[in-house]
Amino acid sequence: MNFDMNEAIQVLKSTPGTLTSLLAGLSDNWLHTNEGEETWTPIQVIGHLIEGEKYNWIPRLELIIQQGAAVSFPPFDRYAHLTKESESSLDNKLSEFQKLRMQNLNRLQALVHTEEQLELKGNHPQFGTVKIRELLSTWVVHDLTHMSQILRIMAKRYNQDVGPWIEFLRILK
Length: 173
Known about the structure:
Blueprint (H helix, E strand, L loop, with lengths): L4 H19 L4 H4 L10 H14 L1 H11 L12 H4 L6 H22 L9 E4 L3 E4 H25 L17
Antiparallel strand pairs: 1-2
């Protein structure tokens, strides 16, 4: 097993700043591009990450600690950000994500202190029994997945413009 709480927190802590550095100040053409029908734009990905901070990671962690596997996690609507119309600017979304993430990391560190706690089990509505270690590992990989997704979306905006170099640009394949 490779999971290390301190290393996980390093990635989780860096995600908001990484996304801010990548996206802040970009034109709407970059922020509102997607990969086709039923795919997300970079700004929608940030909305999804915000929803996860509010309703996924820490609420599930708290449920495991408080009730173990006796109660199933409430479902998390992975698409809720698409139905919530927001006039919020990208800067406001990034700021909200940063604030929520810092609060959640503080909560995580207040709740989980030992290796033994990482083995506590909860009940996922789809997967059945899951451990805190798996939940936290998934949180990290979820961040990395969406950062990769944003980069892929942005790269594909120039898919037809790179000409023959497409052969060497794995992100476009």
